[in-house]
Amino acid sequence: MYIRGDHAELVVGGRLDVRSAADARTVLHSAVDDGAGDLVLDLSELDSWDATGLGVIMGAHRRAGRCGRRLVLRGVPAQMQRLLVATRLHRILAIEGGIGVESLPRV
């Protein structure tokens, strides 16, 4: 897993899972704490995430809200969009361009 960027926009790539969660949490929390306005997470280079990785994203979302910021997801891969819809988190998280639920392939 890698994260590059600054306190306004971060690109997350690789696997966001139990092994990378602590490092990702540290980077995301620092970005939230050090910036202002929207924090954009570009997930277009993310290969996969597990429940722990999703928890890291939700934790950053909550922290951003407490800091008066908004976490915005960009470039969410289709597989992860399906997970967000299945867990109904697409209704809570800000997703750039939204998710076209009807256009997602069924699994």
From TrEMBL:
<protein>
    <recommendedName>
        <fullName>Anti-sigma factor antagonist</fullName>
    </recommendedName>
</protein>
<comment type="similarity">
    <text>Belongs to the anti-sigma-factor antagonist family.</text>
</comment>
<dbReference type="InterPro" id="IPR058548">
    <property type="entry name" value="MlaB-like_STAS"/>
</dbReference>
<dbReference type="InterPro" id="IPR002645">
    <property type="entry name" value="STAS_dom"/>
</dbReference>
<dbReference type="Pfam" id="PF13466">
    <property type="entry name" value="STAS_2"/>
</dbReference>
<dbReference type="InterPro" id="IPR036513">
    <property type="entry name" value="STAS_dom_sf"/>
</dbReference>
<dbReference type="InterPro" id="IPR003658">
    <property type="entry name" value="Anti-sigma_ant"/>
</dbReference>
<dbReference type="GO" id="GO:0043856">
    <property type="term" value="F:anti-sigma factor antagonist activity"/>
</dbReference>
<feature type="domain" description="STAS">
    <location>
        <begin position="1"/>
        <end position="107"/>
    </location>
</feature>
